[in-house]
Specification:
binds calcium ion; mainly beta; 5-stranded antiparallel sheet; 15 strands; single chain; Immunoglobulin-like
Length: 323
């Protein structure tokens, strides 16, 4: 027989427990909502004070600035972005939703020989690229970073609100160590010699960095005897970034160069493969090109074997990579 008086005696305790659970849930919700997301924006001005010609990033016009926010306590890259230098200036946001109180540094490099434009870029940080580092130290919390010279690098201060790191071009650049931008080799081969429907056509390639939005043209191959002329394409991938490899054959399939116009568009066959090597065996896991997979952060050198398949990706998806 139920002891009604026992339940009545316990009711206040149950109510208190329920209230405590509700309070914990409310507190958890507040903590996870992270009010006031902390972002880091990096800008390079053509004319920030002092206004002298050497302040301009013009020597890097047309080149891509790759930026990384580094947590200096752990040494880990916690954000990446990239943008192109135009008219001696740029703006990009490598850090989003950063932890309050963290110690950060911005590393960035211009890909290519200074004065050489985009043609000297190779998509990787290496010898010849100019590199800079700036500590994030906004001591007066006005949202403007107070370490703008890039050499020497100051000690970071705990970051508690969003900051703009406004730099002017510093001719004395940090000696490239590229530690924040390790890269891996991507090799692409044709296999199967079954590209015959595109014999006589030019196959053009582009690498799409999903992490930064940067699209890099990667050259072309003439299709002959069902294979690519040189059989291999070699380029670089920045560690941690996610990529698609886009390519298209210019002209009506099976007709040689009929309607080839050096433009990616209607009538051309176009493909996209994701760069993803989940088992880290060096062989790409998305080689069929029947439909693009999901790219994963690059963590090792990757090899892609391309075999022709009749089901191709709609040029609407791929052709924007070939403006
Ligand atoms: Ca480079
Ligand atoms: Ca400040
Ligand atoms: Ca075309
Ligand atoms: Ca694999």
């Amino acid at each position: 027989m139920p002891h009604l008086h026992t339940w009545l005696r316990r009711a206040p305790l149950l109510l208190a427990l329920l209230a405590a659970v509700a309070l914990v849930a409310a507190c958890s919700k507040d903590e996870s909502s992270t009010p006031g997301a902390i972002n880091v924006t990096l800008t390079g001005s053509a004319s920030t004070p002092p206004v002298i010609p050497s302040d301009s990033y013009a020597p890097h016009n047309g080149q891509v600035i790759h930026a990384a926010v580094v947590d200096t306590a752990s040494g880990q890259v916690v954000g990446r972005s990239a943008t192109t230098v135009t008219s001696g200036a740029f703006s990009t946001q490598p850090g989003t939703n950063l932890a309050s109180g963290g110690l950060y540094r911005v590393d960035f490099f211009a890909d290519g020989t200074p004065g050489g434009g985009a043609a000297t870029a190779n998509g990787a940080c290496d010898t010849g690229d100019h590199n800079w580092q700036v500590a994030i130290r906004d001591f007066n919390a006005d949202g403007i970073n107070d370490d703008t010279t890039s050499t020497p690098v100051g000690a970071p201060l705990p970051l508690t609100s969003s900051v703009t790191v406004a730099t002017h071009h510093d001719g004395t650049y940090v000696v490239p160590d590229c530690l924040s931008f390790p890269s891996y080799t991507l090799t692409v081969n044709d296999v199967g010699a079954n590209w015959g429907p595109h014999n006589g056509q030019t196959m053009r390639f582009a690498l799409v960095d999903q992490t930064t939005g940067v699209i890099t043209q990667e050259g072309s191959e003439l299709v002959s005897g069902g294979t690519f002329t040189s059989h291999v394409l070699t380029t670089s991938l920045i560690a941690g970034d996610k990529y698609f490899l886009d390519f298209y054959a210019d002209g009506d399939p099976g007709t040689g160069t009929t309607n080839a116009d050096s433009v990616c568009g209607s009538g051309d066959h176009a493909w996209r493969v994701a760069i993803v090597d989940a088992d880290k065996n060096g062989t790409n896991d998305d080689n069929t090109s029947t439909a693009p997979g999901t790219p994963q952060p690059v963590a090792n050198a990757v090899h892609v074997d391309l075999s022709h398949v009749a089901t191709y990706v709609n040029p609407t998806l791929v052709c924007p990579s070939f403006p």
